[in-house]
Each structure stands twice: as C-alpha cells, then as structure tokens.
C-alpha cells in the first residue's frame, strides 16, 4: 500500500526546515525569492526614553521612513517609529499620567492608536485623530488599568493595513505601580517581547504588496522584532514571552517544538487568575499572550507556529497561511541556567465582571466586509454606550471566513462560545476576540469611564484589510442617565473643537 504524504504535512516540514522562511512557498501564500539568511540574534526593541515633570511622564515618537537589512546585503524600504522598522517599547505604570508626542515624519497622513488602552476618546488615536505630515499630536491620559501587554500602531481611515505593513508597530507595557511581579520581569533578559509579523519579499528586497488574499497581505517570512530567523540565547531556566500578533492577517498557533506544554499567564489586557498549562496558543491579528517556557540546560527548543483549524473553507485557510508550520524563535539555553522561582499559585489579577452586571445585550453580525450589514461610515455613530457600563456583546460571524473583533476603550471576557459556557476559571481579560466562521461569542465587556458624546471609539475586525474595506463601526460613550435619542448620530469632523 502506498502511503500518500498529505500536502499539509509536506509543506509543514518544508516550512519548519527553513528556519521561519518557507522553501518553495506555502499553500496560497506568495513566496519570497530571497535566500534564507543564517540565524541571527533576536533584536529586542529599545525601551522608549521618557522625562517626568509636574507628574506627567512624557515620551516622544517620530514615524518616519527608513531602510532595514532583514537579509544580508539587501536593503528594504520600511517605516518605523524612531527605528527603521517597528518601534520602541513604551513602559509606564498604572496610576501614572503619560503624554506621548507623536510626530509624523511620513510623506502622508497617519494616526497612532493605543491598542487596548482605556482612555478618553480624543486621545485614542483612531481615524478621527489624523496627524498630517510634519505635525505633532500630543495625547495625554492617566493609566487606569492593570498590568498588561498593550501595543500601538497606525489607524488611518482606509489605509491601516498599508501603514502597519510598512512596519509601524510597537509595544506599550503597563506595569503595576509597585513594580513587584511574581513573574520573570527583566526586560530582554527573561521577560522577552516578541512582536511577530509576516512579509513576503520581492527579488529587490521590498515588501510584496501586489498579491493580496481575501484576508489581506500574508507573507511567507516571519519577522520577530524585525529579525528574520532569530535565536535567543538564555541563561534563565524560565523565560516569559510577551507575544503580539502584529500581522495584518496571518494567524499563529504557538507551541514548543519538543511538544512540552507552556504556561499561559496573561492575555490581551491582563494576567490570568492563575497560571494555566497549555499545549499551544492561538493568536489572531492584534491578540497577545504571555507565555512561560521552562528550559533545560544546553537543550535548544524552538517556538513554532503550527497549523490551525480556523473553521473556514479550505481555500480560505490556504490563503491565510493556516496550514503552515513556521519556526518563530530558536531558543538556545546556556549549559548552566539560573534557577527559577516556584510558579506562583495565583497571579495579581482583577476579577472579571459578573454577567448580572451587564446592563444590555447588543448583537453584531460579522459579514463580508460589513458589520450588521453596514460598512464603516466616518459620519455615522452606530452605537451609544453609557460610560463605565458593562454590556454583553454578541459577536456572530455569519460569514465563511475568519474574522476577529477589537473593541476600543473596552476590556472583556468571553463568557460563552458557540452555545457553550466558558467557566469563570477559564476566562481571561481581552480586547480582541477571534470569532470563527459560523460561530457566536458572547463577550462581557467593561467600557471606559470617560464620556464624550461627540468623539467615537471604533470596533472592528483586526484583519486589517477587512477593517480597511469597511468592517468597522463607531460608538460613543455618554454620561450615565443620558437619553440615547438626544445624542447626535454624527461625530465631530476632523480637528474640530468641542462646543
Ligand atoms: Cu475580518
């Protein structure tokens, strides 16, 4: 009897063998013609410098074009915040007042959104906060949420995918005020940021942008903190990986190459109640996970992305790269490792809301580039929410393709997936929710406390091409007791003042 090697299995081996770079191309994903570079040390994004005066910690970022060397001797045009590709890691604590001067050194209008942050709408950095070329935008707010791995990226109307794809993205880490943590917390040593994204390169070394799938731009080469084929040398017996899926469309299922479990300690917007052993972690675009990996002296292990069942029709899964196996990061432990503290039984954690706290239920049907049958309209307020409210949002993917949903200025927990209740112990704080095709999630969402009936927040699919195509809506927060009928359904226009 002949044994037929499935296409999935073959491609998986081919991809894994190439150290994060696909040999011969994975199914449905454009192939890079550039040779695979030798493994190189993982770059760690620099920490953004800040100055504190009058109780405000001030950062400065400049978005500008640059040139990156992902492959030896090949120059790739990129965009970045302060660096050629990506951005520095901003770090501040709960309770701190922060200001960020964002200067646009790009040849076109952009914006900068603080993904996962709870803050007044005028500082959120969505499509209503454009920064013209040469201009500086200076949002300022107080951090009012627990420790979490947040991030920042452009959000200009209709062209978010292009701006992010050119390289604009960075982490924003929120710490607890006392700085104490039972988890590894030496940045770049045992607390490792991993900004994972994917690109296909042209023969000239440019990012390929002409061949877009139905989901947007999907690449065959992983960039981890801007490094192709990265390795991490570690002298710690336990490392914490803060993983961000910064890809425009590609989804990842992270796992160890030696099949040992990992320990999940945090999701998008906060730590879990207790460490949880997991075999793998699925992250769709915009989602984060904090994972602990235990290492053995002298025994390398690789963080991989494995094939994932996104529940879509097969052609769709091929074009989004869901059948691929990719090496994300090779980890090379030293021969002698620093011992690690025992795993804490519980983590500093904010208890989740109770369903009885929900004041109402809203349903959102995710369709083909529309939400509830409508495409994004900058001049239309879709939903009016009371500031500080807890609500249930039913996210119903009525489409045959994968979508997710990111809600600005909100943090929440999935309480029911496809009719099955999620036990409180299994819930975790999130701001971006994967909604498989033909599936309904019920999400208990807690909204920010700053009303502004004139300036909207966004909710949208974080597959950036879908977002750009119109899979986005707008909500405003109004003061408690406001009659929704009295709220104008048209937001302020760009740059207009209140009043
Ligand atoms: Cu989508």
UniProtKB/TrEMBL annotation:
<dbReference type="InterPro" id="IPR002355">
    <property type="entry name" value="Cu_oxidase_Cu_BS"/>
</dbReference>
<feature type="region of interest" description="Disordered">
    <location>
        <begin position="479"/>
        <end position="499"/>
    </location>
</feature>
<feature type="domain" description="Plastocyanin-like">
    <location>
        <begin position="367"/>
        <end position="478"/>
    </location>
</feature>
<keyword id="KW-0479">Metal-binding</keyword>
<dbReference type="InterPro" id="IPR006311">
    <property type="entry name" value="TAT_signal"/>
</dbReference>
<comment type="similarity">
    <text>Belongs to the multicopper oxidase family.</text>
</comment>
<dbReference type="Pfam" id="PF07732">
    <property type="entry name" value="Cu-oxidase_3"/>
</dbReference>
<dbReference type="InterPro" id="IPR011706">
    <property type="entry name" value="Cu-oxidase_C"/>
</dbReference>
<dbReference type="InterPro" id="IPR011707">
    <property type="entry name" value="Cu-oxidase-like_N"/>
</dbReference>
<dbReference type="InterPro" id="IPR045087">
    <property type="entry name" value="Cu-oxidase_fam"/>
</dbReference>
<comment type="subunit">
    <text>Monomer.</text>
</comment>
<dbReference type="Pfam" id="PF07731">
    <property type="entry name" value="Cu-oxidase_2"/>
</dbReference>
<keyword id="KW-0560">Oxidoreductase</keyword>
<dbReference type="InterPro" id="IPR008972">
    <property type="entry name" value="Cupredoxin"/>
</dbReference>
<protein>
    <recommendedName>
        <fullName>Multicopper oxidase CueO</fullName>
        <ecNumber>1.16.3.4</ecNumber>
    </recommendedName>
</protein>
<feature type="domain" description="Plastocyanin-like">
    <location>
        <begin position="67"/>
        <end position="177"/>
    </location>
</feature>
């Amino acid at each position: 009897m002949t044994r037929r090697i499935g296409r999935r299995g073959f491609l998986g081996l081919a991809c894994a063998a190439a150290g994060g770079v696909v040999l011969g191309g994975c199914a449905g994903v454009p192939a890079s013609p550039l040779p695979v570079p030798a493994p190189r040390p993982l770059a760690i994004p620099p920490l953004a410098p800040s100055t504190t005066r009058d109780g405000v910690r001030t950062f400065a970022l400049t978005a500008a074009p640059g040139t990156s060397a992902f492959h030896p001797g090949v120059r790739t045009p990129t965009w970045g915040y302060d660096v050629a590709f990506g951005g520095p890691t901003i770090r501040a604590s709960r309770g701190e007042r922060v200001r960020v001067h964002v200067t646009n050194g790009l040849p076109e209008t952009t914006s900068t959104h603080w993904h996962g942050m709870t803050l007044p709408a005028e500082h959120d950095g969505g499509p209503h906060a454009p920064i013209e070329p040469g201009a500086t935008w200076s949002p300022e707010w107080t951090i009012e949420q627990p420790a979490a791995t947040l991030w920042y990226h452009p959000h200009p109307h209709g062209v978010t995918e292009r701006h992010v794809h050119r390289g604009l993205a960075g982490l924003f880490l929120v710490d607890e005020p006392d700085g104490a943590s039972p988890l590894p917390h030496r940045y770049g040593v045992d607390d490792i940021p991993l900004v994972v994204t994917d690109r296909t390169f042209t023969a000239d070394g440019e990012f390929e942008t002409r061949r877009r799938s139905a989901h947007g731009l999907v690449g065959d080469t992983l960039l981890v903190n801007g490094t192709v084929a990265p390795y991490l040398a570690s002298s710690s017996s336990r490392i914490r990986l803060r993983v961000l899926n910064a890809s425009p469309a590609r989804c990842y299922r992270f796992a160890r190459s030696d099949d040992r479990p990992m320990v999940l300690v945090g999701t998008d917007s906060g730590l879990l109640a207790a460490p949880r052993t997991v075999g793998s972690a699925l992250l769709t675009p915009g989602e984060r996970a904090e994972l602990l990996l235990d290492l053995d002296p002298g025994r390398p292990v690789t963080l991989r992305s494995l094939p994932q069942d996104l529940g879509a029709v097969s052609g769709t899964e091929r074009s989004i790269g869901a059948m691929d196996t990719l090496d994300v990061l090779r980890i090379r432990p030293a021969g002698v490792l620093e011992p690690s503290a025992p795993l804490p039984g519980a983590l500093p954690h904010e208890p989740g809301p109770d369903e009885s706290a929900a004041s109402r239920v809203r349903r959102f049907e995710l369709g083909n580039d529309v939400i509830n049958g409508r495409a994004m309209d900058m001049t239309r307020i879709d939903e009016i929410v009371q500031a500080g409210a807890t609500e249930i949002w039913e996210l119903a993917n009525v489409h045959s393709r994968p979508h997710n949903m990111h809600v600005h200025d909100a943090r929440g927990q999935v309480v029911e997936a496809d009719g099955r209740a999620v036990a409180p112990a299994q819930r975790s704080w999130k701001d971006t929710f994967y909604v498989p095709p033909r599936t309904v999630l019920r999400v208990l969402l807690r909204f920010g406390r700053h009303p502004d009936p004139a300036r909207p927040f966004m909710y949208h699919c974080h597959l950036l091409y879908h977002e750009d195509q119109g899979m986005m809506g707008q909500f405003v927060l109004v003061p408690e007791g406001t009659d929704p009928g009295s709220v104008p359904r048209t937001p302020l226009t760009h740059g207009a003042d209140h009043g």
